[in-house]
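Students often ask why we bother encoding 3D structure as a string. The short answer is that it lets us treat folding as translation between two languages. Here is a chain of 270 residues written in the first language.
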Amino acid sequence: MITTVLGSEGFIGKQVVRVLRQRGYTPFCPSRDENLTGHALGIVFYCIGLTADFRTRPLETVDAHVCALSRLLHDADFDRLIYLSSTRVYEGLSGLVNENTSLIVEVNNFSHLYNLSKLMGESVCLHCGRNAVVVRLSNVVGPDFSSDNFLISLIRQACDSELIRLHSALESAKDFILVDDAVNAIIALAQYPKPKHIYNIASGRKLSNAQICKTIARAQKCRWEVLPDSLLLTFPDIDVSLARQELGLFSNNVLDVLGDLVCQYRKRKA
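And here it is in the second language, the structure alphabet:
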């Protein structure tokens, strides 16, 4: 199987490359501006994207999620493209959501620029006439200690100052998935013979801020406080039955590895 990983220097892209190599593949990892004309790319993992910094780089966000993707779909020689989207597109909904749930977006809501760009990328993939599949990833957790990832930022606060400051209520909760579990499902999709158009890659369980803080505090002595005017952030439950059935998705409980992540951060800091 010929494989190509675009965005191979990003957190998830690096993990896709690592697992592919462990399984005996030699993925092609072109730079962002490399000319791909004339290359047989095989299975393309489209891991290019912006996350926490999309508010300060809106134009780059749209270019990464839509424009660069559109050029690739138009010109490149590939067998299948797997586009990494986000379960953040379910923002504003409640109850249980699946891949066919109707979505809500607000043009005047700046935080929805990310959602809109991901949805435009999804739509281009699904209607361009090429073999392209979408995965909607929930909040991916792993040892990415330089990132602004929510859980990683809490671990840094706990270890650096022994105080976690929360900008959202203790009851706020959302879905998290370990990076290895997510990557295993993504790579399984590369070889699935007749995939559906969209798959949710999530744990299917939500963790509250209170659960997370208590777990971190068991590994690293710290306090936590909820800042004034913090909001209760609610997110829907994500149906992952399709990915479990067709891709063998298995998701470990993120709470079980938070202690290990705290230890890894302490060692890295030392």
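Translate back mentally: The two ends are 41 Å apart (CA to CA). Keep this in mind for the problem set.
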